[in-house]
Amino acid sequence: MKTTGMLIDGLAATEMVDSSGEVLEVKGCDISDWEEGKGVLNYEHKTPEEGGSGIEIVGKVVFCKKLYSRADCENDRMREYWDRVKVPAIYIIARLYDGAGHAGAQALAAMIRDHVANGEKILVRYSIEGSTLATEGNRLTSTVAKRCALTLKPCNRTCDSGILLDPNAPAGFSK
Fold first, then answer.
1. How much of the chain exceeds pLDDT 70, in percent?
2. What is the mean pLDDT of residues 152-156?
3. What SS3 state is found at 107?
């Protein structure tokens, strides 16, 4: 796959209890914006609506798929994430804007790259953003995914990330 920026993947949401005590039901989550190429990544939930300048948008979702069972996984990478949680989840692939010279995306790519190069768990992970349309107790039964934040403190600690491709890796780092 050709890309201008770092390609990262992972679980943007899972049906595990988050630190707010809530559970997002994957079946009831509308991911159509992401499927249509309108899903963007921001850093730490910063948005242009808060008076931003564009620096807060660091990438975009280029692929997404709901996983309800291991049988839904199309490749080893998806199976690896499924095997970690074994509950319904939303798997994504996202492209950072580091290759286009976006300073915020370059900083995130450097953090991710450094964790991998040092054999550490990647601390830059995902937090889904959108609207809640219906709940039943602590379960978010109908939601709309709009954005995905890259964050160092995800509410859902099972939302891990990884690197697929790193075409802009400096000398000494794996592409």
1. 98
2. 93
3. helix
